[in-house]
Predict the 3D structure of the following.
Amino acid sequence: MTTRIEIAPGVVHHPGWLDRPAQEALLADLRAVVKAAPLFVPRMPRTGKPFSVRMSNCGALGWVSDEKGYRYQPAHPETGEPWPAMPDALLAAWQALGSYPHPPEACLINLYDATAKMSLHQDRDEDDLNAPVLSLSLGDTAVFRVGGTSRGGRTVSLKLQSGDALSFGGPARLAFHGIDRIIAGTSTLLPQGGRINLTLRRVTRPPP
Ligand code: MD6
Ligand code: FE
């Protein structure tokens, strides 16, 4: 039995989507991914200010950010190597929860330490905005905030725990959202603590 809670139109929370063994298996897959595609520190466009998260990607395309801007590219910005393949468990989650007939092309991997945050943003660097973005959380609980499609409106917050999935689509595809804080010590999954968030995206418009 899985629970499906519609937080706002188009924002669906699936608490406990991955059980503990599935979380451990996914974590092992991710260790192999970051061995091949090491974590890097993204930087803000123009200013070059570093993000508080470290990140990597898997799938055909990866999202990167630096002084030149935000973009998707087929290779790691530091090693120049193609991104590793997306683990099967991620493709399976997309098939089950993505409600979209084309496969995801990018999975962003964000690693939060106890002090990292993600300021309110829209995910709008994809050409195909008909597909949802699907997020999976591992490790410490995060306080997630989501608002409307314009900055400064009303927001609601919810806690994302290890194993939770959250999908963002339809009227919420361009909603502002972010991570206010990580609640340290809430999970034993990651030996050093912290949180991993994965977001699966379709980037290109599918062929007609
Ligand atoms: C995070 N999540 O949970 C940040 N984006 O760490 C996101 O930025 C996000 O959860 C698009 C759709 C779902 C998300
Ligand atoms: Fe996002």
